[in-house]
Amino acid sequence: MDSIYYTLQDFMLHSKNITYIVMGIVLIALPLFWRFLSGRDEKKRTY
Amino acid sequence: MSDDTTRADTRILTPFNVIAGSIILVGLVLTVLRFTKGIGAVTNLDDNNPWGLWIGFDLLCGVALAAGGYVTSATCYIFGLKRFHSAVRPAILTAFLGYALVVFALNFDVGRPWRLPYPIFFSPGTTSLLYEVGLCVFLYLMVLLIEYSPAALEWLGFRKIRNIIVRLTLVLTIFGVVLSTLHQSSLGALFMIAPSKLHPLWYSGYLPVYFFVSSIFAGMSMVIFEGSLAHRYLHHKMDETHLAESEGVALGFAKAAAFVMMGYVGIKVIGLAIDNNWHYLATGWGAWFLVELIGFVALPAFAYALAARERNLRLARWAAIWSVLGLVLNRLNISLVAFNWHLPSAERYFPSWMEIAISVFIVTVGIVVYRFISTHMPILYEHPDYRHEH
Known about the structure:
Structural class of chain A: mainly alpha
Mean pLDDT of chain A: 87
Distance between the termini of chain A: 54 Å
Structural class of chain B: mainly alpha
Number of helices of chain B: 14
Shape of chain B: globular
Radius of gyration of chain B: 21 Å
Helix content of chain A: 55-70%
Order of helices and strands of chain A: H
Oligomer: heterodimer
Number of strands of chain B: 0
Mean pLDDT of chain B: 92
Strand content of chain B: under 5%
Largest sheet of chain A: none
Shape of chain A: rod-shaped
Low-confidence stretches of chain B: 1-8
Largest interface: A-B, 21 and 20 residues
Order of helices and strands of chain B: HHHHHHHHHHHHHH
């Protein structure tokens, strides 16, 4: 967290790495949250 | 609908009238003071803090909380979810009054109300975000006036004009969504001009996105909150359709708001990551940031989710108040609390009592006008002559 970045490349590499990990977590978490939200909805009949 | 309360309303000295009347009286005195003695006589604004409570609360919160208008009309007319239809008119009315009061409040801040049309018609600054916000608010206020007008025209009995305007509903809705997308985000973008003044935890290149997304759930929360108030105080004005649909509207919006709020939390964390601001979280500012993000966004989102799952209307209504407070906290943090964060405390801004009183006065005017319109015009019920026309 407190590391010193000597170039913009270093900084971008570090922050983008973390960002992509966070994005992955969000992309997994949001559908799970949607399942939690809709867990008790009445099932739609598709036949 | 019963006439009991209508009869009760004929009394002039009701607690509501006394309190609202006193606030309006004080507000009028302060208004005279502000326009005769100048902005310095009533505010604590200075060169470091040229935008105070009137911008942070009246304008930023007013615009965001009025987002219920475009959210509800888009839900009903663009996404075709007709079960939300009964919420459209109250939401449009709230949005119309909200925007009208934003413009009203802006006059206190900028002064010289007769020059208000200048930026639009005489000297447009087409490269300025403020110009874009002004133009959008001006146009959207017109759109809201037209969207609201069928209720007034039904009340007045102007059937022909009312029928013409009702045919424009879809066009107006699309126009409203476009304008709202533009200016809700631009209000956030205004703060991007001050990266050295706004604390890094609140400053982000994604501020426009944050403002727009937060306006969506703020609008939904306001519709739920306002629906619960209408149920309590204007129950006698609601017809069977409104009463039957109100629970579905509240729980439907609770579910949508929960999902949008969790998405908002996600993009806020992504914003933290992309600017590598994690280390600020360990400071006092970080704690305050987490209070806002977790305490006033993630937790009410979870409360909304539980309410939608368990079909708990009461919880949805409490979560709505919680979320509205969260939105207000966010806008005040960005415009006042985390703005000029590096200044010594002696130079920090705190609103004068007169600024607060004028804000309370403006909110009170809104409540009084809303109450008048919803008790006289077909807002919470369908006019008998136009039933089943939608």
